[in-house]
Amino acid sequence: MTIKTVLFDFSGTLLRIESAEEWLRGALAATGRVLPEARLVELAAALERVGAQPGGAPGAPVRFPDARTAELWPVRDESAAAHRAAYTGLSRHVPLPHDALHEELYARHMRPEGWRPYPDAHDVLAGLRARGIRVGVVSNVGWDIRPVFRAHGLDALVDAYTLSFEHGVQKPDARLFATACGVLGASGPETLMVGDSREADGGASALGCAVHFVEHLPVTARPAGLRPVLGLVDAAG
């Protein structure tokens, strides 16, 4: 069947968050604080190890600092409050020198300057638009990512966003994909889902969607990972 709609995941698919060191360095600058470089690198690595950076290295934390954070983790993307509490709970597992840094780190990850589009993201989205393909973004996330897309010149190439925290349901639940398809007037068999998580994004297959996976890598390490999407669309046509 012809592909008429392509759904994309957000983090690790179309854009990637800055490194943990950049993340911490930005939070320090925003709060007017300075750390010796060696200490900054050490703390950034610790934050990365505990999974405190939203959009960072994929996979669940090895352990949780408290029962509340462990309880929130499986449903963290179902509400803004759960998302904030889960990630700041992990961050507080690392003894940062100033308590205000925990909230600033969370705030920073929602700012456009903390994100980088993959090098081929714009061209692939533009290529789909030129082919008359409708494009949606389906993300497990606890905040509004639209400003990030606007700041990086991608918003005009996206027809609709389906964000887990706005619907109270998260991937791989087929209901989130069904909502995304419904907004775009698409059926599952004429839709391609593109994402970096076999567990989460693979849930689209329950609707009959084709699914294509990309690797969750830093932007410099994946210059053309999205380009096969255009070939898949053309081949299906």
Automatic annotation (TrEMBL):
<dbReference type="Pfam" id="PF00702">
    <property type="entry name" value="Hydrolase"/>
</dbReference>
<dbReference type="InterPro" id="IPR036412">
    <property type="entry name" value="HAD-like_sf"/>
</dbReference>
<protein>
    <submittedName>
        <fullName>HAD-IA family hydrolase</fullName>
    </submittedName>
</protein>
<dbReference type="GO" id="GO:0016787">
    <property type="term" value="F:hydrolase activity"/>
</dbReference>
<keyword id="KW-0378">Hydrolase</keyword>
<dbReference type="InterPro" id="IPR006439">
    <property type="entry name" value="HAD-SF_hydro_IA"/>
</dbReference>
<dbReference type="InterPro" id="IPR023214">
    <property type="entry name" value="HAD_sf"/>
</dbReference>
